[in-house]
Amino acid sequence: MKVLIIGGGGREHALAWACARSERVAEVLVAPGNAGTAAEPRTRNVEVDALDVAALLQLARHERPALTIVGPEAPLVAGVVDLFESAGLRCFGPRQRNAQLEGSKAFAKEFLQRHGIATAAWRRFTAATYDAGWVSAQRAPLVVKASGLAAGKGVIIAASTQEADAAARAMFAGRFGEAGGQIVIEEYLPGEELSFIVMADGEHVLPLASSQDHKRLLDGDAGPNTGGMGAYSPAPVLTDALQARILREIIAPTIAGLAAEGMPYTGFLYAGLMIGPDGVPRVLEFNCRLGDPETQPLLARLRTDLTVLCEAALERRLHEVRAEWDERCALGVVLAAAGYPDAVRTGDAIEGLEQAARLPGKLFHAATRRAADGRVLTSGGRVLCAVGLGAGVAEAQGEAYALAASVHFAGEQYRRDIGHRALARASTQRPPRAPITASR
Ligand code: AMP
Ligand code: GLY
Fold it and tell me: Which of 126, 190, 250, 256 is least surrounded, with the fewest CB atoms within 10 Å of its CB?
């Protein structure tokens, strides 16, 4: 079979790599892909922008992939799944209405409220309904969010109500473009963050292995928020009891609620959770796709054929399949370009890729492109993700950092402490749990 992957980041390199390993797959197309996908066996980049849904449809009509997997949120929010379905093409991802769970934070918060699913207390505002008096009467810190898609950057954690007011006004003034026309201001939740990602088929869910990312730019979780500077799987914060609780209190009512509202959800569903000091899981956000960089360590551990899981989901029989995971820990370190997460410098040559290919672990590309002269250049903020595997977090970390150290580009920045929370817990780590099966 032929598989089409939509997108060109690190997540999509991992998706393409996972599909290309499948015995059923003859060829993987990636639109548009990057220098990493271009170098994978049985994989071909096609120069179609991931946001140009009309061109993607044309490509799929021509190439007839048996399966398309959508990586990033933007084409999902733009309705690429609906479009493919109406043309009789199998496309794994949520439809446009469902993608609003990520595309509109106000929509997601209202949905959570309607279904009694735990989340931070909140209010929504537009410039016309903004109530500065309400803001000043709240207890800081406050979290101010642009409601629309802002490439992971539209969230400001304000230490004071004055800062929150300034953030709200900046958003109304266009700081995040259209995404900030509507904002959500919510209570700050303390605790430990956890990414909980499932596959859903409208009715059943298959939880993927646990993972955790590192949102802040600098060591010790300091500095500005980013799209993610590293991730690892499994996340020891997720005990069996907590997983059961998340499935029962958050995932099941979400999938059932969406079905009851006439929009059964098919695709990856990523719940960004905060596990409070009280042990209660609360939803920070939904993403309608896999996480980046969580996908890179996650798929490095996936033993089951990903195309089989996606097909089962498209046929509403996720409860019939199981996902097997490598029992080792996988850990990914993001190498970011100079200036990230603000104004990013691009066009720096990446050295050491051949040497990296001989090392254990896997170097996934994100924002890279091959120049006419054959050099591989940086082309955006998050450039590479070095994934290592090991019996424990420390071993995975060692392999990932050896891989990261083998490549160089001017201005590269990466954290030296990816996995620190898991390491701190490692002394209390339990043996790996039995394979997870789908539940209704
Ligand atoms: P979001 O895009 O909504 O996940 O927000 C980005 C990041 O901001 C999250 O990963 C958290 O680290 C942080 N964040 C968002 N909402 C809250 C909240 N209510 N309390 C504490 N931190 C938050
Ligand atoms: N790593 C967080 C995200 O993909 O949204």
Answer: 190
